[in-house]
Fold these 2 entries.
Entry 1:
Amino acid sequence: MSSVKQLFDRNIEWAKRIKSEDPQFFKKLAKQQSPEYLWIGCSDSRVPANEIVDLLPGDIFVHRNVANLVIHTDLNCLSVIHYAVEVLKVRHIIVCGHYGCGGVAAAIQNSSYGLIDNWLRNIKNIYYRNQEQFSSCVDEEERIDLLCEFNVVEQVANVCHTTIVQDAWKRGQDLTVHGWIYSILDGVLRDLEVNFNAPEQIPEVYRFYPGGGRR
Ligand code: CO
């Protein structure tokens, strides 16, 4: 059996299993999706959004890229956030990084991996700006893990600085942005407790509406 063929076999078994638990599951879901969460995570195969939080199809809207970055000129990521906030009206945006992230590790090192170096440059900037905070790290692994956390905090800020999130807050929409980190060693999520749900929480220069933008 080819390795691709087995995916179809597994799919049939999976669909059967879901239907046996709830015969109407796919029929109901086909009518509409109304997820409460947008997940922005790393493409790493060990960090699958639905599985980690044990949610079924329909419960979570997902965007993943290498090292869970939110770049202001990335039309793909911005379109996902826009659709999630303005159409699906998600109530939570979760930026979820993970310890031992290969993208973050590559950004700390001086090796070249080709095109992706330009993407990972965004993480180098975070490392360079916060260099002194890494002086107490005992080894490279600890430096990488600390940078994984700094990266999540930075991407949470980037989400908040988009026009999309600020427009939602201006409309009075209930929307909170969270920063989490996942450990591939034990499968456990940790809340970095960087939660934003109002324009007053972001630095003034990033606000698009005077006085914080509340209605
Ligand atoms: Co990663």
Note: The chain has a mean pLDDT of 95.
Entry 2:
Amino acid sequence: MNPFEIVSFFDLRGHVLDVKPLGGGLINDTFRVYTDGPEDYVLQRINNAIFKDVELLQHNIDCATAHIRKKGGMTLTFLPCKATGKTYWTDGETYWRVSVFIRDSYTYDTVNPEYSYYAGKAFGQFETMLSDIPDTLGETIPDFHNMELRARQLREAVKADAVGRMKEAEVQAILKDLLPYEQEMCKAERLYREGKLPKRICHCDTKVNNMLFDKDGNVLCVIDLDTLMPSFVFSDFGDFMRTAANTVAEDDPAIEKVDFRMDIFEAFAKGYLEGATFLTPIEKENLPYAACLFPYMQAVRFFADYINGDTYYKIQYPEHNLVRTRNQVALFHAALLRVPQMKAYIDSL
Ligand code: GN1
Ligand code: MG
């Protein structure tokens, strides 16, 4: 179905002038809707192969955005569908939603320490605002950041060897490199079972480019709320580090250039600890673990997808997931080396 027709099912202001692709997400298809009215819009096709329960997903988003707005925070505004009043439209096969485009906003794929500090504070405040939400939110992707599950999925991929990639020497070498850390990386699930670690409402996709800044570097709002769900705070801390503290992009093939930037870690951690006022000592002391866990988990996820024959992440060339894996493995090792320094810094705050 064409985007012009889809947007006509929503209550937009003004006439639609044009619809053009927007951004570089790996899961959904995103478009900017240009109008002659007071605002433009963002149209998204929700990937319901990955987000199987769109009703729950939009329920989470509706509750969270309403709660943040009530507290005076800035957040995304989704438009109701004319026919149903729900914030998505479906023909039973495809799922679409429309939100207001936030003008004069900027996203960045890399940030300096100053912006990391603002981002840390904003993500921390975001979690704080949601810490007393009265509604029950569900897991839009069950066990999304459960390391035990991700490790199991890798093992299953290896066993199935769906496209014969297990015979590649490099694939074997990466597997050998990753496996010894598995137990250590599954620490969060153990702490949770022991009742020592709570689940909280987290964003779960705190990539640096999921934050809108204004032209002066002020944080406008947190975007991409699909994975907003109960999780460990490690999700939000770790995924920001994974993307912002890497000296290169997550799919840069030049792995010799991959390094973990301590200046970014320190700035983000400072802001985050100022913003997330509800953290327990166990959560706080495990933030360095989170900074290692997320490159590790992402390596495992990209790697499993490569072995499965690239069925999950969009790829631009056949080895893309392998290149991403190498990069994330290198980042994981770089982060591990910095753990003592990270701990010392967190203690000093
Ligand atoms: C996916 O679509 P995007 O780029 O926001 C993925 C994240 C990964 C990320 C890696 C639902 O996010 O978990 O960290 O790619 N989202 C989902 O770039 O799997
Ligand atoms: Mg996302």
Note: The chain has 13 helices and nine strands.
